[in-house]
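Lab notebook page, bench 4
Experiment: in silico fold of construct C2
Operator: M.H.
Input chain length: 118 residues
Purpose: comparison with the prior construct
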Amino acid sequence: MASETELIRDNKNNIAITLEKYLFSYGMTDEIQEALKEFESWLRSTLVLTKNIIPHNIVLGYENDKIILKIIDGLGSKSYLPFTYTSDFFASRYVERRIELMQSRINWDLTGRKGNWK
């Protein structure tokens, strides 16, 4: 396993803000909805294993004036058994669950953080 270090910047060359900060400032914009769809597609196609994807662990980068979401923490599988590392079937199910939990967490953040987000 390798890691990569990158300073992610916004479209004005400032250090990128987190998805959490963006959502609290601007809400669920069309631009963020599109970026989330693309991020989910990327997760599904690469089968990158993550822990729960929480908005403060995602930052907004930009490519060609378009928001690109980048995960900055929480890589790796929470699974006790290593099936997700050896089987695309199990990895795919695992990634789908992480996407569902991410959507739940975003909704919880946007609705006042009442109750349990899981």
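Observations: The longest helix spans residues 88-110. The CA atoms of residues 50 and 75 lie 4 Å apart.
Next step: discuss at group meeting.
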